[in-house]
Amino acid sequence: MIDIRRILEVMPHRYPFLLVDRILEVEPGRRIVGLKNVTINEPFFPGHFPGAPVMPGVLIIETMAQVAGLMLMDTIPDPQAKLLFFLGIDNARFRRPVVPGDQLRCELEVIQARGPTFKVRGRALVDGAVVAEAEMLARVTDR
Questions:
Q1: For the whole model, what pTM was predicted?
Q2: Residues lower than pLDDT 70 in the chain
């Protein structure tokens, strides 16, 4: 398990844009499972939507991308000297709303790696039900 201290060492993101709370499983360079605890205190809920808070789909995808980024950056020497840029997304689907109190479990696997470019397949689940899925393309670059 990777806790928030290690996440902060590897990831450049900070509040309010760090969307990963914990990593549960890692197969370096192959597979990762991470958690995001969705609370009513999220900065996007007052505007999305007043009286009916729903986590924006783009932030669910971003959460999956950050979890994948942790797996990829943790395999690189000196990750503080690198950045991982999101290049593209394919086959994104949203299955049900994510609301305050949900725990988003993000499961990602590398499906292709070519040098500094990676394609990952991910899905986000709440209580065992898929809420979103997508394939994402990212590249490691110098800072």
A1: 0.95
A2: none
